[in-house]
Specification:
By secondary structure, this protein is of the alpha/beta class. The chain is built from 15 helices and 19 strands. Helix 3 crosses helix 4.
Length: 514
């Protein structure tokens, strides 16, 4: 009697072979998607491909076969979504149709041609790239932090994986430049990879004059060709500003100028002056209760970022002159209340009082300048109030919040006298920031504003500041003693008002601070 092979043995062999094949495919898929950070294509063990009738599905207006060249790579596998094939979704079709119409217009205007080697930056799914190919521009590619082959390769707008002078046409859509954490590097990379006489087209949601001029300043590599508004295709960007730039034949560097441009004369541009017309009015009549009126006035302040977009700036800088403790105006006001539009600011705290220096020792993101802001580099004597814990009480006695006061000599003073190193603030400012940066300054310097502000104007450093919050110290009425003025300061309210008025007439956005 012959023995037949057991069915279970054959079944076990087949099951093991099947599981081994599944394991190989799974490992390969994990490598492609996870390690390489890209979508798989047909050569990577994927089993789905682009529908042959996708051109019909998208709803793009048909062109003659000679006008449309579809790259072979487009027939490869698209990325997948939980809801199915991304390339067949309504959102994809609508997006591609919109960008195709944009590119057709650019071709008609001569900014784009079928021979243009083209790049789309910050395109997660490659709608713009596909629209370019459908519009007859086959040599097109996109970049995004996670690639999605065949349309998009891995890369970032501010760190492009391409050689210099590679592309004839670069496109930035969907407001990607608006959201860029590094707009200066973004601009520099565009200037580097775009060929001379090549075109850079941007779609931005920023439509105010301030942001437009900031954009033009950012791209010093290029010449403005035109700017227009077009209707968007979704609720995220209902109205789009389309800007076309052309790269100059010869440029110095790639988009970023060095800091600290030294000029002794400056003129505030008109687009900044326009913001003053929208600002809150100055308090022209001297407050009888300044501790109430001026403090309440802070609620009326119209911050610059509430009147304009502050996109397209290389850096964002906050300078607190007379910062006192870390928890004073830096934390309680700037970090919590100032509208920063999701931008990260570099913070400089200028404070000469040694009693506050320890607070800044371990504070990340804050640069302490442990000297006194002044009109020149020299050593000064300062009067320091005796009790560091009685600022509120000293204020009621007319001594003010600041605890440091310049004096002529070390004799006949009420408090302790310290020898403090002072520095030329105007020159420091010109060496630290540039006219392209977004700079906010708060100044509370116990009366020396009447020395510092004229110095900033004289040296042209005032034009480097976009917005100033200035506390002006004068012989104000005292809270403790009705009918009596503070003897700590010699200036009058009219002199303070004249200082504020002259700044605004010069085009500087300044606010009355308390």
């Amino acid at each position: 009697m012959t023995m037949e092979p057991k069915p279970s043995l054959l079944r076990n062999i087949l099951v093991r072979v099947f599981l081994f094949c599944v394991l190989v495919i799974g490992v390969r898929f994990a490598y492609v998607v996870t390690i390489r950070g890209e979508s798989c294509d047909l050569g990577d063990f994927c089993f789905f491909s682009l529908p042959e009738n996708l051109n019909f599905v998208t709803g793009i207006r048909q062109m003659s076969s000679s006008a449309i060249i579809i790259h072979d790579a487009v027939r490869s596998a698209p990325s997948k979504t939980d809801g199915g094939d991304l390339w067949s979704t309504e959102g994809w079709r609508k997006s591609v149709q919109f960008y195709a119409s944009v590119f057709h217009d650019l071709i008609a205007e001569g900014f784009l041609s079928p021979d243009s080697k083209s790049l789309c930056v910050e395109t997660p799914n490659g709608e713009e790239v596909f629209a370019l190919k459908e519009s007859g521009v086959p040599d097109s590619i996109g970049i995004y932090k996670k690639g999605s082959k065949p349309l998009v390769v891995s890369g970032k707008a501010f760190r492009q994986p391409f050689d210099d002078n590679t592309f004839d046409f670069i496109f930035s859509g969907n407001g990607s430049l608006d959201r860029s954490p590094k707009p200066a590097e973004f601009a520099a990379e565009v200037a580097r990879t775009l060929k001379p006489d090549g075109y850079f087209v941007v779609h931005t949601a920023s439509k105010d004059t301030y942001s437009f001029n900031s954009f033009i300043d950012l791209f010093n590599c290029c010449t403005l060709i035109r700017s227009r508004e077009i209707d968007g295709f979704d609720s995220a960007m209902k109205v789009i500003r389309e800007i076309v730039l052309k790269k100059d034949n010869e440029i110095l560097g790639y988009g970023v100028k060095p800091r600290g441009k030294s000029v002794n004369k400056c003129s505030v541009p008109g687009y900044k002056r326009q913001l003053i017309q929208k600002a809150e009015p100055l308090i022209t009549e001297e407050p009888k209760k300044p501790w109430i009126t001026l403090k309440r006035n802070i609620q009326n302040i119209k911050y610059l970022p509430s009147m304009a977009d502050i996109n397209f700036k290389p850096r964002y800088v906050y300078i607190d002159v007379g910062s006192r403790g870390y928890g004073s105006s830096i934390v309680s006001w700037f970090k919590k209340q100032y509208p920063k539009q999701n931008r990260t600011f570099e913070i400089y705290a200028i404070e000469a009082d040694k009693a506050f220096h320890e607070e800044y020792r371990h504070k990340k993101g804050v640069n302490l300048i442990p000297y006194a802001a002044w009109v020149r580099n020299e050593t000064l004597f300062f009067e320091v109030n005796q009790d560091p814990g009685r600022e509120k009480e000293e204020k009621e006695k007319g001594r003010g919040m600041g605890r440091i006061k310049p004096v002529q000599s070390s004799g006949s003073v009420v408090g302790d006298v310290d020898e403090i190193q002072a520095f030329d603030f105007a020159n420091w400012l010109k060496e630290t920031v540039s006219e392209k940066d977004f700079v906010v300054m708060k100044m509370d310097v116990e009366g020396t504003e009447f020395d510092l502000i004229p110095r900033l104007i004289e040296t042209g450093a005032i034009c480097l500041i976009d917005e100033i919050f200035l506390e002006c110290h004068y012989n104000r009425w005292q809270k403790c003693c009705p009918g009596e003025r503070s003897s700590k300061y010699e200036k009058t309210y009219d002199q303070c008002l004249e200082l504020f008025t002259s700044l605004r007439e010069s085009g500087v956005l300044v606010h009355q601070w308390w």
